């Protein structure tokens, strides 16, 4: 919503919910957390960043192509 002040709050929540469902943090079609979502919700921001970094490093070592876009991030 920072980047698009004209966006309605309900649209922003819908987008966020869909992304969390896609990543496996929320159960499909609901706003109920999965086991993974509960674990990640209890982590601090720094701890989540460390686990994310570790996963990306393992993917690179296996030779998987990194298709993440970091453009537009703060």
Descriptive overview:
- The protein contains 3 helices and no strands.
- With 74 residues, it is mainly α.
- The protein has one domain.
Which short descriptors sum up this protein?
3 helices; 55% helix; mainly alpha; 74 residues
Give me the secondary-structure topology.
Elements lengths: L8 H15 L11 H8 L2 H18 L12
Q: Evaluate the radius of gyration.
A: 15 Å
Unreliable spans: none
What percentage of residues falls in helices of 4 or more residues? 55-70%
Strand content: under 5%
* Assembly of the depicted chains: single chain
Outline of this structure?
By secondary structure, the protein is mainly α. It is 55% helix and 0% strand.
